[in-house]
Amino acid sequence: MISRLKKIANKELLPEKYDLNYYTHECREYQRYCNLGWETGEPKGLDGYELWNNVHTATLEDFKIKDTDLFHPDAKK
After folding, report:
1. Which of 10, 25, 28, 32 is 20 to 30 A from 39, alpha carbon to alpha carbon?
2. Sign for the pseudo-dihedral over CA of 52, 53, 58, 60
3. Where are the domains of the chain?
């Protein structure tokens, strides 16, 4: 997905819904991490997974999308 976003930024590719979903999801997810005091890094072990899972799930709910709405089929190859 990062390579798709770079191509979009370089005007080599037009953004599709997947790209917009991914970008906005990642921005909101990062904002949530920052709000919880994790601008960089993450807790170790299970605490790190639980933090990611909670932040990721809440962000999906914000936009009313599923994991499958985040990744363009080309990015899965």
Report:
1. 10
2. positive
3. 16-76
Q: What is the pLDDT of residues 3-55, one digit of tens each?
A: 999 999 999 999 999 999 999 999 999 999 999 999 999 999 999 999 999 99
CB-CB contact of 4 with 13 (8 Å): yes
**pLDDT reading at 77 higher than 80:** no
Distance between CA atoms of 62 and 26, rounded to whole angstroms? 12
Could you tell me the pTM of the whole model? 0.88
Q: How many CA atoms lie within 13 A of 24 on its CB side?
A: 14
